[in-house]
Specification:
Keywords: 4Fe-4S, ATP-binding, Cytoplasm, Iron, Iron-sulfur, Metal-binding, Nucleotide-binding. This protein has nine helices and 13 strands. The protein is an alpha/beta fold. The structure holds adenosine-5'-diphosphate.
Length: 279
């Protein structure tokens, strides 16, 4: 029997982030979930397997950083290191955050890859086998590995499902949708995919669910709202929560100011204020 990728051996939880369509906020939910977990003291790794449009390096503000090779394998890019954080009441308050993405391996940010299935599969296998998935000090095992996938169910999903089959218990998948998409077949396709490959659906997040007016703080349901909850009720899934459209969110995501991202803005703008429950 094939063995689990060695580099995943110590990872405590593996969670996939899926969506039926692009542009619904899957990568945004991945970044915010990762930052929330870091803020709760967990060591988090994020793997971006959206090989044709890797956006996480930009979203995390580490677009121009480089992946390094060590004797143990590829060292992912550090987004946040808690190495110098003070120890309060016997522990560090924040965890560490590292990211691996094809984006780091492309010479030019405007480059994209046009690969056939087998090449994509080989790349994903390498991401799981050759990356040193550990906390900030290079030794502590990761608490969470979040895997951001491309929209739909494509070669990348099949490859990851095959690789993870040998990786021990995978916690499952979070499905991100928008109110308009909720009733469409795309979300159900994701759910069916999870069933086929034995991934547990951890729950559904409804993103862009209403718009909170920055002036009067009133929430307007531009599209519909509540579909995510109904979908979950009808399919017996967990509804994790909804996130409104927030104009400041785009500003922060697009911000390239690393100081702001590390120290304040991005780490403050977390789910703490929303209804999304920690995993
Ligand atoms: P996906 O990964 O599903 O393609 P992204 O996470 O890249 O989607 O989001 C698409 C765009 O929508 C990005 O510009 C992102 O900043 C924006 N966005 C996502 N969620 C929200 C939100 N709740 N409020 C405002 N903008 C959002």
């Amino acid at each position: 029997m094939e063995e689990a990728p060695r580099s995943l051996a110590g990872v405590r939880h593996i969670v996939l982030i899926l969506s039926g369509k692009g542009g619904v906020g899957k990568s945004s939910v991945t970044t915010q979930t990762a930052l929330t977990l870091v803020n709760h003291g967990y060591n988090v790794g994020v793997l971006d397997i959206d090989l044709t449009g890797p956006s996480l390096p930009r979203m995390f503000g580490v677009e121009y950083k480089q992946v390094h090779q060590s004797t143990a394998g590829w060292v992912p890019v550090s987004v946040y290191s808690n190495a110098n954080d003070p120890i309060v009441e016997g522990k560090k308050q924040r965890g560490s955050l590292s990211l691996m993405s094809l984006g780091f391996l492309l010479g030019d940010r405007n480059n994209s890859v046009v690969w056939r299935g087998p090449k994509k599969t080989a790349m994903i296998r390498q991401f799981l086998k050759d990356v040193v998935w550990t906390g900030g000090d290079g030794k502590t095992p990761l608490d969470y590995l979040l895997i951001d996938t491309p929209p739909g169910t494509s070669d990348e999903h099949i490859a990851i499902a095959e690789e993870l089959r040998y990786a021990g218990p995978i916690d499952g998948a979070i499905i991100v949708t928008t109110p308009q998409q909720v009733a469409t077949a795309d979300v159900r396709k994701e759910i069916n995919f999870c069933k086929k490959v034995n991934f547990n659906v951890l729950g559904v997040v409804e993103n862009m669910s209403g718009f909170i007016c920055p002036h009067c703080a009133e929430c307007t349901n531009i599209f519909s709202s509540g579909g995510g909850q109904q979908l979950c009720e009808s399919l017996d899934l967990t509804f994790l929560g909804n996130i409104p459209i927030d104009p400041t969110f785009v500003e922060m995501i697009e911000s390239q100011d690393n100081e702001e991202i590390h120290g304040k803005k991005k780490l403050i703008h977390l789910y703490d204020d929303s209804e999304l429950k920690p995993i």
